Amino acid sequence: MAEEINEEKLRKELLKIYESFINNPEDKKVLSLAQEYHLRYSGLQTCNEHLVKSVISENTEKAINELSTIYQYGMHDENHPAFSNKKIIESAKKILEELKK
Questions:
Q1: Phi then psi dihedrals of residue 77, to 5 deg
Q2: Residue 17 Cα distances to 3, 43, 81, 93, angstroms
Q3: What pTM does this model have?
Q4: Using CA atoms, how far apart are residues 26 and 47, in angstroms rounded to an integer?
Q5: CA distance 101 to 80
Q6: Cβ contacts of 70 within 8 Å, gap of 6 or more
């Protein structure tokens, strides 16, 4: 039987991950947790695309999808056009704000 998704609980966990990442982007535990959640929940986007009623909101879906950027943080230098450290932090802050709504 498939796991039932409690979106409120998932959003709270995502809030913790994003807040922790913004406070300490190099914390290996946070990066590991981001990877774990991304791998565990990234398939929900496919569910949302195929079901009449979405399993999770767009904000939660986006936050899950962006976790891959968090755990890959530091793979690019400051001058990378899409994945500079500054851009990754700014993106995480925007997602955090959306999750708080």
A1: -85, 175
A2: 21, 19, 25, 11
A3: 0.83
A4: 32
A5: 30
A6: 17, 18, 21, 30, 31, 34, 88, 92
The two structure tokens encoding residue 53: 């009623």
| Total Cβ atoms within 10 A of residue 12 | 12
Q: What tens-digit pLDDT sequence spans the chain (101 residues)?
A: 356 788 899 999 999 999 999 999 989 999 999 999 999 988 776 665 555 556 788 899 999 999 998 888 766 677 777 788 888 999 999 999 999 98
Listed residue (20, 17, 19, 99) closest to 60, CA to CA: 99
Q: How far apart are CA 96 and CA 11, in angstroms?
A: 10
